[in-house]
Design goal:
GO terms for molecular function: mechanosensitive monoatomic ion channel activity. This protein is an all-alpha fold. It has 22 helices and five strands. The protein folds into two domains: 460 residues, no CATH class; 55 residues. The protein is 72% helix and 3% strand. The strands form two sheets. Strands 1-2-3 form a three-stranded antiparallel β-sheet. It has a two-stranded parallel ribbon with strand order 4-5.
Length: 689
C-alpha cells in the first residue's frame, strides 16, 4: 500500500497552505502532513463527523450554510431521526421548535413598534447611513430621557403627590430645621400674586421663575422628609439621592453597551476593507424585500455606502501620492488653522466668564427688578452661551474644509473642537455660580456655610439656569429652521442673483447637529438633580426636534457632497456623549459632596451636604450591617479590590490579544484555502489535458 500512499503525500506537500506553514515555522526538513490513514487522523475525523451530526440534529436545516439540495437532505435525515425517539424526546423537540418560532414571530412584530422605524428607513435610503445615524442617535436620547423621567417621577415626584393628596392613607413628615439659625431658613419664592400681566407669565415660562418656581419642577418645592404608607416609611431624601445615582449609572451602562456594539462593527470594518466590499457587494442585499419602495431604499443605502468607501479610498490614495512640498504646505496650513481655533476657544471661555460675573454682580438690584434692562442682564449668560454655541461650530465647519481630512475624521475633529466650546461653556457657567454661592468674603457664609443672602435656595437657582439653557437652546433650533433655513431655500429657488446662488443649498452638517443634542443632554444630566422633571422637558424637546430636523433635511438641505459612513460615526457619537456624561459627574459630585445644602428649602436641609443622608441612613441599620458597609468604604477593602480589578483587567487584555491572534490566523487560513482551491483546479485542468 506504500506506493499508493506516497503519491498523495507528495501531492499534499505541493499545496500553497503547506508551503506557507512550512515557511512560517522556518523548517527545511521534509515534514509529512498527517494523512487520513493514520489512527490519530481517523479519530479526529470521527469526532468531526459526530460533531457535524450533532449539529445537524440540533440546528434547523435553514440555518446551515449549504445549498438547497443539501438542506433537503439534512431535513430528511432529521425527520428520519425523530422516528426513533421516545415520546418525551419528541415532545421536547416539538415544544422547542414551537417556542423558537413564537419568539421569532414576536421579535418580528416588535420591530414594527420601534419608534420612527419607517421615517429613519426612508432617511437612510434618501440621504445615506451617515445622516440616518444622527436620527437613530436622536431616537436613543428620546428613549433615554423618557426612562430617566419615569425613574425620577416614580421615586421622587409621585410619592410627594401621593402624600399631598392623602392617597393610600399616607401621612407626611415635614422637615423641621435643627440647630440652624433662623436667618438661614428664610426663603420666599417669587410666586406671582394678585393681578399679573401676560408678559410676566411669559418671562416666568422662559426663565423658570414666578409660578414655575413653586411647582414640582424645581428642587426647592420638595420639603418632605418621609411618607408613611400604611406601616412603611418611605425615606424621600434617600430616594432622591439614589434615584440620581441610578439615572447616572443607567446612562453610563447604556452608552457603554451601545459603544461596545459600535466599536465591534467599526473594528470589523477597519480590519479588512476588502472584506467590507465583499460583504456589501455579495451579501448586502436583503432577498426578503418584496415592496418596491423598500427595495429602492435598500438600493440607495448600498449605493451611498459604496460611494463612501470609494471616496475614502480615493482620498487615501491622494494622501499617499502627495509630494514633500505638498505635505509641508498642508501641515503648515493645519497648524495655522489650529492656532485660530485655539484663539476662538479662548475668546469664548473668557467671554462666558466675564459675562457671568457681570450678570451675578448686577442682576440683584431690587430697584430695577422688573425693568427690561435687568431682565437682559439676568439672561445675558444664556444669550452669550447660545451665541458661542451657534457661531463656533459654523466657523469650525468652514475652517476644516481647508485641512483635507477624510469625511469620517473630519466629523470627529469638528466634534472634538465643538465639544470644548459647548461643554466647557457649561463648566464656566457652573464655576461662576459656585464661586458666587461659596463666596464667603466679609463673613457672608458664617451663619449658613454659603451665601444665603444672594442664594437662599441655591439648588433651585442652579436648576433655573439649566432650565433657561435648555429652553434657549430649543428656541434657537426652531428659530434657525424657521428664519434661516426656509428663507434661504426660498431665495435660492426663486432668486437668480449670483451672490445668493453662490451660497446655494446648505448641506446637513452632522457634527453640528450632533453637538446640539449632546449639549442639551449634558444640561439635562446636570440639571435633573436640581430640577427632577427636566428629563420630561428634554423628551418633549427631542421629540419635536426630530420632526423639525426631518422637515429641514427633506425640504431645505441637499445631500452631502462627501457621504459619511455610519459605522464609525455611531461609535464616535457615543464617545462624545460619554464625554458629556463624565463632565456631568464633576458638577454633580461637587454639589452633592462639597457645597453645603440649602437650609431654607429642599429635602436635605437637615444635612450639611446631600451626601450625609447615606451615612445617616446606614447608622440606622443593625450593628453587623453597619460594619459591613463601613468596611466596604474603608481602605482595607479598597486596596485589595483595586489590585484584583487590575489583575482581572490584565487577564482580559491578554485574552483579547489571544483572540486577536486567533482571528488573524483564521483569516490567513481562509486566504490559504482559496489558494489551495485554485491550485487544485489548475492541477485538475492539467490532468484533463
Amino acid at each position: 500500500e506504500e506506493p499508493h500512499g506516497a503519491a498523495p503525500v507528495d501531492f499534499l506537500q505541493e499545496l500553497p497552505s503547506y508551503q506557507s506553514a512550512r515557511r512560517r515555522r522556518g523548517g527545511t526538513q521534509d515534514r509529512r502532513p498527517a494523512l487520513l490513514g493514520t489512527a490519530g487522523s481517523r479519530g479526529t475525523a470521527a469526532r468531526a463527523l459526530l460533531q457535524d451530526r450533532d449539529e445537524r440534529t440540533d440546528r434547523p436545516a435553514r440555518e446551515h450554510p449549504k445549498c438547497m439540495a443539501e438542506k433537503r437532505i439534512i431535513r430528511n435525515s432529521q425527520q428520519a431521526d425523530t422516528e426513533h425517539l421516545s415520546k418525551w424526546q419528541k415532545w421536547r423537540r416539538t415544544s422547542s421548535k414551537s417556542l423558537k418560532k413564537a419568539l421569532s414571530e414576536i421579535k418580528g412584530l416588535s420591530s414594527y413598534l420601534v419608534l420612527w422605524r419607517h421615517d429613519i428607513h426612508n432617511i437612510e435610503g434618501k440621504f445615506g447611513t451617515g445622516i440616518q445615524s444622527y436620527f437613530s442617535f436622536l431616537r436613543f436620547l428620546v428613549l433615554l430621557n423618557f426612562i430617566i423621567f419615569i425613574l425620577m417621577f416614580s421615586f421622587v415626584t409621585l410619592p410627594t403627590i401621593i402624600s399631598k393628596y392623602g392617597v393610600f392613607n399616607s401621612t407626611v413628615a415635614y422637615i423641621s430645621p435643627k440647630n440652624i439659625e433662623d436667618i438661614c431658613t428664610i426663603y420666599e419664592p417669587s410666586g406671582n400674586k394678585g393681578l399679573v400681566y401676560f408678559y410676566t407669565y411669559l418671562k416666568d415660562l422662559l426663565s423658570g421663575t414666578g409660578f414655575l418656581e413653586v411647582t414640582y419642577l424645581f428642587y426647592g418645592y420638595y420639603s418632605i422628609d418621609a411618607v408613611w404608607i400604611s406601616m412603611m416609611r418611605y425615606n424621600l431624601p434617600l430616594a432622591y439621592l439614589l434615584a440620581t445615582f441610578a439615572y447616572l449609572a443607567l446612562s453610563f451602562l447604556w452608552i457603554i453597551k451601545r459603544s461596545v456594539e459600535g466599536f465591534r462593527h467599526n473594528l470589523v470594518h477597519d480590519a479588512d476593507p476588502f472584506q467590507s466590499y465583499c460583504n456589501k457587494v455579495f451579501a448586502g442585499w436583503d432577498f426578503c424585500i418584496t415592496d418596491p419602495n423598500a427595495a429602492r431604499l435598500k438600493y440607495r443605502s448600498l449605493q451611498y455606502e459604496l460611494q463612501t468607501d470609494l471616496q475614502e479610498e480615493k482620498l487615501k490614495q491622494k494622501i499617499a501620492e502627495r509630494t514633500m512640498k505638498e505635505k509641508i504646505c498642508i501641515y503648515s496650513l493645519r497648524i495655522f488653522i489650529n492656532i485660530i481655533v485655539i484663539a476662538i476657544l479662548s475668546g469664548c471661555f473668557y467671554s462666558i466668564y466675564r459675562v457671568t460675573v457681570f450678570s451675578q454682580e448686577n442682576s440683584s438690584n431690587a430697584d430695577n427688578a422688573n425693568s427690561p434692562v435687568n431682565l437682559l442682564v439676568q439672561y445675558l449668560p444664556s444669550i452669550v452661551i447660545t451665541l458661542a454655541n451657534f457661531t463656533g461650530p459654523l466657523i469650525f465647519s468652514f475652517l476644516i474644509r481647508f485641512e483635507e481630512y477624510t469625511p469620517a475624521f473630519e466629523i470627529k475633529l469638528t466634534l472634538l473642537r465643538c465639544v470644548f466650546v459647548r461643554l466647557a461653556n457649561i463648566g464656566v457657567l457652573l464655576f461662576s455660580l459656585w464661586s458666587q454661592i461659596s463666596n464667603c468674603g466679609s463673613d457672608k457664609c458664617k451663619p449658613c456655610g454659603y451665601n444665603y443672602k444672594l442664594y437662599p435656595c441655591w439648588e433651585s437657582d442652579v436648576g433655573q439656569e439649566m432650565y433657561k439653557l435648555m429652553i434657549f437652546d430649543f428656541i434657537v433650533i426652531l428659530a434657525v429652521a424657521l428664519f434661516v433655513d426656509f428663507p434661504r431655500k426660498l431665495l435660492v429657488t426663486h432668486c437668480s442673483c449670483k451672490l445668493i446662488q453662490w451660497f446655494g443649498h446648505k448641506e446637513f452638517e452632522i457634527s453640528d447637529n450632533v453637538l446640539e443634542i449632546i449639549y442639551g443632554q449634558t444640561i439635562c444630566w446636570i440639571g435633573t438633580f436640581f430640577s427632577p422633571l427636566l428629563p420630561a422637558i428634554a423628551t418633549i424637546k427631542y421629540f419635536i426636534i426630530f420632526y423639525v430636523k426631518k422637515i429641514v433635511l427633506i425640504h431645505t438641505r441637499k445631500p452631502a457632497a462627501r457621504p459619511i459612513r455610519a459605522s464609525s460615526s455611531n461609535f464616535f457619537f457615543l464617545v462624545v456623549l460619554l464625554i458629556g456624561l463624565l463632565l456631568a459627574f464633576v458638577p454633580l459630585g461637587v454639589s452633592i459632596a462639597y457645597i453645603p445644602s440649602s437650609k431654607a428649602c429642599g429635602l436635605f436641609r437637615n444635612f450639611n451636604t446631600s451626601w450625609e443622608v447615606i451615612p445617616d441612613t446606614i447608622l440606622q441599620f443593625p450593628t453587623g450591617l453597619q460594619q459591613f458597609f463601613f468596611g466596604i468604604a474603608s481602605e482595607a477593602f479598597a486596596v485589595p479590590f483595586f489590585v484584583i480589578l487590575c489583575i482581572v483587567m490584565f487577564y482580559v487584555i491578554a485574552l483579547a490579544r489571544a483572540h486577536k491572534r486567533v482571528v488573524e490566523q483564521l483569516r490567513e487560513q481562509l486566504v490559504l484555502e482559496s489558494r489551495d482551491k485554485m491550485f487544485l483546479i489548475r492541477k485538475i485542468a492539467e490532468a484533463q489535458r
